[in-house]
Amino acid sequence: MPIAQAQSKPWEDRSNHSRFDNTDSEIQPPPTVHNGISRDAVDPMETSITPLTQGAAGFVPHIHQLPIELFQHLLSLAVAEIRHGDQPWRVYSRIVELRLVCTRWLAVIDSHPSFWTLLTNRLSTSLISIVLEKNGTLPLDVDLFCTTSGNDSPPLHYMNIVTSLAERWRSLNILWHYHDGGQQEALRNLLLTPASQLKAFSFDSGSGILMTINLFDNMTPNLDSFSTRQAIPNWNWLLMKGLRKLAVSSVYVDVRDLEALIRVLIATPNMEELELSGRGQTGGTFPGEPSSKLEPVVLDSLRLFTLRMFPSPWDYMLLEAIRIPQRCAVDIALNLKPSPQFPLSIPMKQLQTRLTGSSLLKVVFVADEDGSSAEYKYYGADGVGDTSISLRYPEGDYQLSRASQLWQSSLAEITESVQTSGIPVHISIFSNALPRIHSPDALTSTLKLVDELLPSVYKATFCGWYIRLFLSYASFPSFPNLSDLEVREVEATPWKEILECVEARSELATVQGWKFKPLRNTDSEIQPPPTVYNGTRRDAVDPMETPIALFTQGAAGFVPHIHQLPIELFQHLLSLAVAEIRHGDRPWRVYYSRIVELRLVCTRWLAVIDSHPSFWTLLTGRLGPSLVSLVLEKSGKLPLDVDLCTEILRTDPRLHYVDIVTSLAKRWRSLDILWHHRVQQEALRNLLLTPAPQLKAFSFDCRGGILNMISLFDNTTPDLDSFSTRRAVPNWNWVLTKGLRKLAVSEVYVDVRDLEALIQVLVASPNMEELEVSGWKQTGGTRPGEPSFKLEPVVLDSLRLFTLRMIPSRWAYKLLEAISIPQRCAVDIALNLNPSSQPPLSKPMEQLQTRLTGSSLLKVVFATNEDALKAEYKCYGTGGVGDTSIFLRYPELEYQFSEVPHLWLSSLAEITESVQSSGIPVHISIFSDSIIHKRSSDILTSTLKSVDELLPSLSKVSLGGRHIQQLLSHASSPSFPNLSDLVVFDVVETPWKEILECVSARSELAIVQGQKFKALRSISLPQGPIDQQAYERLSTLVENIYRN
Question: Torsion over CA of 509, 514, 515 and 516, rounded to 10 degrees?
Answer without folding.
Answer: 30
